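Design job #97: recover the sequence.
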């Protein structure tokens, strides 16, 4: 087994002290199962100015902690990746849990020479009719665009070639990132991939907060906003993706845009 770091796993986190341990339990299992050994995977928690014990939990679990003040997910992902030492960079949200063969599957896919980047996809932690229909709708987009969510990964050199995640975006930065990588891959006849045998387990806390049908009752309001007003689109994104997580004393600043 090599002590050299091969994979850097970046976890963006804002006030995730409660859920981070269950993710790290699964990350530890995947590191133990990795053929190159535990030390070949470094875990970086990009702490987005948390007001709880997120950073302390990460340190206690042996993670590297990178502080990122900017409240924009693209900035947090990039901040965590900036100091990554692995040949491969992977990203996973703090409220997910990963499969124990994740790191082996990522390395296997990239070693074929046919893959530029990819994602594992996800299972959901609970189901209802509203959640199932939302999932089905998103799967149509996944199949059409041939890209997925979950644990997203690429080579570090390709991450740097596309400039990382687009920090102008409040949302859909992950879609843009994979589209940028796909363009890089086309030059080498490489493709995006979906590692469906090692899907991550995704939290349903957005549904818990907004309701199982909220995508159809509230979220689709985003479509006309995108066509009509960039400012209103960004405000919707701030409210939906960052609203309940941002510190109260930042609220006035966000409202000013």
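Job complete. Output follows.
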């Amino acid at each position: 087994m090599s002590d050299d770091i091969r994979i850097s796993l970046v976890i963006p986190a804002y006030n995730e002290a409660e859920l981070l341990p269950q993710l790290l339990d699964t990350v530890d299992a995947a590191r133990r199962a990795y053929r190159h050994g535990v030390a070949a995977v470094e875990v970086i928690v990009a702490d987005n100015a948390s007001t709880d014990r997120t950073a302390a939990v990460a340190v206690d679990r042996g993670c590297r902690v990178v502080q990122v003040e900017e409240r924009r997910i693209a900035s947090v992902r990039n901040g965590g990746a900036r100091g990554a030492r692995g040949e491969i960079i992977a990203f996973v949200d703090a409220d997910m849990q990963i499969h124990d063969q994740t790191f082996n599957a990522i390395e296997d896919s990239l070693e074929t020479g046919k893959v530029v980047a990819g994602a594992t996809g996800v299972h959901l932690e609970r189901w209802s009719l509203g959640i199932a229909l939302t999932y089905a709708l998103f799967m149509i987009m996944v199949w059409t665009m041939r890209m997925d969510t979950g644990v997203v990964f690429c080579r570090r050199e390709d991450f740097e070639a596309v400039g990382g995640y687009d920090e102008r975006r409040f949302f859909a930065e992950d879609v843009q990132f994979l589209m940028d990588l796909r363009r890089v891959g086309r030059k080498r006849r490489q493709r995006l991939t979906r590692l469906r045998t090692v899907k991550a387990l995704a939290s349903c806390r957005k549904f818990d907060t907004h309701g199982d049908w909220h995508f159809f009752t509230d979220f689709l309001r985003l479509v006309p906003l995108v066509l009509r007003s960039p400012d209103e689109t960004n405000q919707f994104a701030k409210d939906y993706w960052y609203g309940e997580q941002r510190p109260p004393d930042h609220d006035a600043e966000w409202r000013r845009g």
